[in-house]
Amino acid sequence: MEKLQQAGLFGGGLTTVSGPLVARYNDCLAMLGIKPVKLKRFQIDGLGWSPEVAAELKDDYYLNLGDANSYGIILSPEQFDQPIYRPFHSFDRDLMYAVFTAYQKEIKDITKDSAICLHVDQGLDTYYESFDLLKIEKVSVHFKISGDLDKNKAEQMALIEEYNQGNNFFHRDIHKKLLASALAYGDLRDRKVHLEPISVEVNSFYTKAFGGVFVLRDFIKEIMVFESMETFKKSISNTTHEVMLFHKEHEELHKTLVDHLIVECNLKRAETTPKYTRIKKHLLVEHLKDAEHPMAEILENEFLYKRYFNTLSPDERKLISGVEIYNEKIAQSNQFKRKDLVDYRIFLALHEPHSSIEDEHRALIWKLLVKIMPLDPVALYWFDKESFYELFPKYDESYQDWIIERIKERNKEFKL
After folding, report:
1. Cα(99)–Cα(74) distance, integer angstroms
2. How much is the pLDDT for 129?
3. Number of helices (H) and strands (E), helices first, in the chain?
4. Does residue 135 sit in the same domain as residue 274?
5. Which residues of 143-180 are buried (b: 16+ CB within 10 A; e: fewer)?
6. Is 169 among the domain residues?
7. Average pLDDT over residues 165-172
8. Alpha-carbon distances of 103 from 46, 135, 201, rounded to whole Å
9. Which of 51, 171, 323, 385 has the most CB atoms lying inside 10 A of its own CB?
10. Burial class of residue 234, CB neighbours in 10 A (0-12, 13-18, 19+)
11. Comparing C-alpha atoms, which of 22, 416, 356 is closest to residue 218?
12. Which of 145, 167, 187 lies at the terminal end of a domain, its last residue?
């Protein structure tokens, strides 16, 4: 991870928590029934999740009280539009953006001396089966302010109203109560500390519940795609729901996604893309044994690349170059079949969201595609960072350097 941190590809956009902010963070943890952390300094992302706190608690999803109950913590306006490193749902970032957009002034005011705990309410106390995910159509965010600042303001305003009635300004008891409130909490009259719940409509989404599930709506039929084979097998035994069920590795899934105009692949166009070049080089690294040169040098030096490519067996070379071979032959005769010449893994990895897919769904479909076939490290970094961070340490060190450069290169254009 050190390489990624130095390259600005991990840990960026985190807000530092120290001093009194630590106590406020612990106040929010206490609301969730979590013991206070011993850390004096740590960092949090846009949702309030901290890698250091997760390490201390030995729980990457400590802000979840069960799969159906997610929470967040706001300590600073600086968290606005910052990365979320451990999202439990694909809509988490959109939710936080909606919260900060709706309550920008209030958040700035409240976080002067308090913290905000968020409860992401899906209208379900718990999930009993994977089909409960189909019930999620709207998600609401409820707010709880540490130290009951909103309640304290309400009490102070009630005292002021009582003070202004009739001759109550003569009553010493009211004077004492007002003075005590002002000394304890300051003048709260003009403070913006009340946050009404926010609701957001949810269509297609991904959740880590049940081992990872995609729920795809707004298409010909509802589709659920499972990462866990165990959950998939349990779900297909239930025939009461009109929904198409697939495991991510099933070939039938690919056909359905194409037929429903969710994904598409043009092999002629794909051959000319940087994405295809990266996939070929990734496969070369997979097949190379005992290289004398650093992987990064092999992949960037045309002469070295050809030298090492030709050390592979004929079948390995055909596998890596299958798309070029197929495009060349199909231009001469339509008798050739794609499945005979193009490796199925490469074919899947070259798919992209269908051109008709709305922008709000494109990132979700990209995420599904890299879950199905993670051969392109740049796409994996963009759309499934957790899987990328798990795989990255397993790569050859020089190949790691090459991947970092490719990500930084494509980040400038944000184009695969």
Report:
1. 10
2. 93
3. 21, 12
4. no
5. bbbbeebbebbeebeebeeeeeeeeeeeeeebeebeee
6. no
7. 60
8. 15, 28, 18
9. 323
10. middle
11. 356
12. 145
* Closest C-alpha among 278, 287, 280, 281 to residue 322: 280
* Number of domains into which the chain is organized: 2
Name the pLDDT band for 289 (thresholds 50, 70, 90): confident
Nearest to 28 by CA among 83, 110, 100: 110
Indicate the helix (H) or strand (E) that contains 146. Answer: none
Q: Which residues make Cβ contacts (< 8 Å) with residue 109, sequence separation at least 6?
A: 191, 192, 193
Under 8 Å between Cβ of 192 and 105:
yes
- Sequence-distant (6+) residues with CB within 8 A of 297 are 304, 398
User: Which pTM was predicted?
Assistant: 0.87
**Helices 302-309, 274-287: inter-axial angle, 10-degree rounding:** 50
Mean pLDDT of 298-319: 95
Residue type, 382: W
* Distance (Å, whole) CA 188 – CA 182: 8
Rounded to an integer, what distance in angstroms lies between the CA atom of residue 366 and that of residue 372? Answer: 10
The pair of three-digit structure tokens given for residue 66, joined into one six-digit string: 């069960």
Q: Are 305 and 288 in contact (CB under 8 A)?
A: no
Tokens at 165, concatenated:
């009635």
The DSSP annotation for 31-86 comes to HTT-PPP--SEEEE-TTS--HHHHHHHT-TTTTBSSTTEEEEEE--GGGTT---SS
For residue 166, name the pLDDT band (cuts at 50, 70, 90): low
Residue type at 388? Answer: F
Cα separation of 157 and 93, whole Å? Answer: 35
Position with higher pLDDT, 74 vs 334: 74
Which of the two residues, 274 and 238, has the higher pLDDT score? Answer: 274
Are 254 and 391 found together in one domain?
A: yes
User: What's the pLDDT at 219?
Assistant: 86
The answer to whether 51 and 43 are in contact (CB under 8 A) is yes
- Kindly provide the b/e burial profile for residues 90-117, where b requires at least 16 CB atoms within 10 angstroms of the residue's own CB: bbbbebbebbbeebeebbebbbeebbbb
The DSSP result for 328-352, as a single string, is HHHHH-TT--HHHHS-HHHHHHT-E
Q: What are phi and psi of 210, to 5 degrees?
A: 60, 30
Could you tell me the residue range of the domain that residue 13 belongs to? 2-145
Q: Has residue 203 been placed in a domain?
A: no
Assess if residue 287 is contained within a domain: yes
Query: Same domain, yes or no, for 254 and 127?
Result: no
Give the pLDDT score at 12: 84
Dist CA 25 CA 48 (whole Å): 9
